[in-house]
């Protein structure tokens, strides 16, 4: 082995030169490692749990049906049509119902006119009677009353003449009492006629009043029933499963028409494993990563937990709890400003924010698991 005789490249010179550089690099690396270890207790990260979920409405699907039968005269339904609560979707002909209503209303009107005539007749005012029946009855009553009044007046005149004779002693008391009795009888006949006829009209008035109230109730019932001939949207949503009925089709009670899928008040329904359910609580913050949108471009949706099932669900040999979350907003937006909306049926991954822990705590927990394993895996 030959060694250089150059004093600049001697072994001692090279060791001295490179040893100083290596020592500086070593010290730098040690300082960096120590700095990183020292910063671990001060660096916090979010700890979250993940689960699968789907967007759905808070309300279940609402079927459209009718409780009456008839011919369809208007149909504004088609699949995927957006409707608002209260919109009229289907009209069914109600000819028979309207005929019954018109007939009943006409009877009520006639009864009201007759009631007015009866009131006037009871009050003794027959000059403005409008119904032929009451005009005839009033004529018969007044004719009979006038006849009885004539008899009464004749008996009264005869009574007055006989009283003068009785006062002079021309006739006996027994003969005078006959004329007195005839006068009272004639007077009572007039009173009985007036009282009986008035009572008859009053009874008819009461009966007609009751009948009119019943008929008015029937009209109100018809008006209520007529609403059944209009199929309106009970909730806002989208029309699905439309049966295809058209104008002119005949409808039967309880025949399915379509289904409204509500779109208001959306929620996210997630399935949580029994191992993680203890970490979930109401009002817990949640982030949602949509399967249909790249989260690097569209970002994440946010929300909170609003309901947790108390009972476990078993389905296809899997056990889970259902957790429902409210969306803060269903809108996703690109950096360019273009927006879209998350709709019912879209699947996603939910991330539940459990806590914030330092990197030191996480490292310590990991080392504790290595050194003191306490969990037993169940195959």
Automatic annotation (TrEMBL):
* TM region positions: 25-45
Q: Where is the Multidrug resistance protein MdtA-like barrel-sandwich hybrid domain?
A: 62-260
The lineage's top-level taxon is Bacteria
Q: Please list the residue ranges annotated as the AprE-like beta-barrel domain.
A: 267-350
- Keywords recorded for this protein, A-Z: Membrane, Transmembrane, Transmembrane helix
One Pfam family it belongs to: Beta-barrel_AprE
Q: Which Gene3D superfamilies match?
A: 2.40.30.170, 2.40.50.100, Helix hairpin bin (1.10.287.470)
Cite the InterPro entries for this sequence: Beta-barrel_AprE (IPR058982), MdtA-like_BSH (IPR058625), MFP (IPR050739)
| Compartments where found | Membrane
Membrane topology, as annotated, equals: Single-pass membrane protein
The terms describing its cellular component in GO are: membrane
The cross-references to PANTHER family, in alphabetical order and at most eight, read: MEMBRANE FUSION SUBUNIT OF EMRAB-TOLC MULTIDRUG EFFLUX PUMP (PTHR30386), TRANSPORT PROTEIN COMB (PTHR30386:SF26)
Q: What is this protein called?
A: Secretion protein HlyD
Taxonomic classification:
Bacteria, Pseudomonadati, Bacteroidota, Flavobacteriia, Flavobacteriales
């Amino acid at each position: 082995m030959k060694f250089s005789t150059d004093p600049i490249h001697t072994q001692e010179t090279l060791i001295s030169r490179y040893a100083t550089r290596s020592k500086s690099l070593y010290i730098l690396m040690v300082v960096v490692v120590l700095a990183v270890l020292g910063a671990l207790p001060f660096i916090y990260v979010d700890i979250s749990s993940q689960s699968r979920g789907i967007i759905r409405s808070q309300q279940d699907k609402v079927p459209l049906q009718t409780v009456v039968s008839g011919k369809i005269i208007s149909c504004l339904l088609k699949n995927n049509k957006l409707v608002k609560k209260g919109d009229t979707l289907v009209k069914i002909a109600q000819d028979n119902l309207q005929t019954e209503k018109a007939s009943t209303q006409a009877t009520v009107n006639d009864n009201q006119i007759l009631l007015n005539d009866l009131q006037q007749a009871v009050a003794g005012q027959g000059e403005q009677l409008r119904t032929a029946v009451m005009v005839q009855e009033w004529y018969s009553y007044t004719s009979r009353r006038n006849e009885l009044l004539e008899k009464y007046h004749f008996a009264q005149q005869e009574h007055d003449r006989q009283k003068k004779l009785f006062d002079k002693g021309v006739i006996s008391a027994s003969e005078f009492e006959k004329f007195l009795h005839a006068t009272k009888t004639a007077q009572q006949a007039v009173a009985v006629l007036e009282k009986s006829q008035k009572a008859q009209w009053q009874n008819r008035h009461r009966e007609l009043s009751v009948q009119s109230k019943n008929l008015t109730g029937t009209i109100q019932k018809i008006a209520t029933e007529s609403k059944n001939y209009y199929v309106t949207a009970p909730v806002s949503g989208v029309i699905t499963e439309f049966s295809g009925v058209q104008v002119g089709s005949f409808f039967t009670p309880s025949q399915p028409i379509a289904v409204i899928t509500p779109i208001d008040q959306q929620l996210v329904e997630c399935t949580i494993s029994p191992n993680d359910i203890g970490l979930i609580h109401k009002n817990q913050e949640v982030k949602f990563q949509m399967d249909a949108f790249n989260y690097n471009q569209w970002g994440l949706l946010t929300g909170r937990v609003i309901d947790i099932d108390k009972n476990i669900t078993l389905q296809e040999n899997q056990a889970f709890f259902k957790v429902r979350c409210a969306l803060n907003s269903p809108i996703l937006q690109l950096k360019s400003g273009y927006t879209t909306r998350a709709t019912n049926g879209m699947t996603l991954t939910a991330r539940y924010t459990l806590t914030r822990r330092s990197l030191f705590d996480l490292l310590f927990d990991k080392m504790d698991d290595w050194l003191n394993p306490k969990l037993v895996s169940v195959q």
